[in-house]
Amino acid sequence: xxxxxxxxxxxxxxxxxxxxxxxxxxxxxxxxxxxxxxxxxxxxxxxxxxxxxxxxxxxxxxxxxxxxxxxxxxxxxxxxxxxxxxxxxxxxxxxxxxxxxxxxxxxxxxxxxxxxxxxxxxxxxxxxxxxxxxxxxxxxxxxxxxxxxxxx
Length: 152
Fold this sequence. Notes:
Layout: E1 6-9, H1 15-28, H2 36-48, E2 53-59, E3 65-76, E4 81-91, H3 100-114, E5 117-122, H4 129-137
């Protein structure tokens, strides 16, 4: 199946496909709700901010986006360098288990390293056992940190 998958960076024409993928992801995660208007705004901002952010995508033979992962750079005082926040990793259910996610994540990490990042981190929903197992399988380490947020 991977023979017919094309990997590259998202563009604004991909936003409708990306919104569908995010809707599936946000339906699983308890902290987020699908909202096409907000997702369109956010995706546009990421795509237009290509110096410090990327959305890596996988496309099927028809050109439809069937997977995505985004990465954004922040400055880490602990690292003394850029660090990449990995977000919005989701693969269409029909394409899971074939290495698409691993390749997408790898592409995002290469992008981050090329931008000077020395570490990457992500958040995972504590109730999403499949995601936790997936990242453990890929040797992502757990930390003692716990996320907090406030809306402004």
